[in-house]
């Protein structure tokens, strides 16, 4: 569930970059906000995917799974940069605007398989929120005493 939520944030980030400009609001608010958003969402994506890989990989060959996943991510990342730079130079494609829209669409489309992933130790969001509410109530009760 967390991976899907953060994945949607990562998916719409290229569209948010389209709102950046050279005015004072963009320089002092929008650009720092986008960088903080990207840093937090990518850290969460890395944490969630590494946890999934550790759970799926057999104990004896976890390092091989991580190496293969890292190699595939590196190769496909390089291919994406190459294709993206090629598409950005094509005038019929729409330049950077078209590239950012395509990037957002492909990122959101890549989330579809995650709908079918069910972690064994996952906790429902409503159950997690109840735990935080109980902790808040406990802290408030202790503060009143």
Relevant terms:
single chain, globular, 145 residues
Write the topology of this structure.
Blueprint: H1 2-17, H2 24-56, H3 62-89, H4 95-109, H5 125-144
Helix pairs in contact: 1-2, 1-4, 3-4
Describe what you observe in this structure.
- This protein has 145 residues and is mainly alpha-helical.
- Helices cover 77% and strands 0% of the residues.
- It contains five helices and no strands.
- Helix 3 runs antiparallel to helix 4.
- The longest helix is centred in the first third of the chain and has 33 residues, at 24-56.
- The chain is globular and about 55 Å long.
- The model has no long low-confidence stretch (mean pLDDT 85).
Strand content: under 5%
> Major β-sheet, in short?
none
**What is the helix content?**
over 70%
* Unreliable stretches: none
Structural class estimated from helices and strands? mainly alpha
What is the rounded Rg?
Answer: 20 Å
Shape: globular
Terminal CA distance = 38 Å
**Number of DSSP strand runs:** 0
Tally of helical runs: 5
Quote the average pLDDT. Answer: 85
The secondary-structure element order is HHHHH
Summarize the structure.
This protein is an all-alpha fold and 145 residues long. The chain is 77% helix and 0% strand.
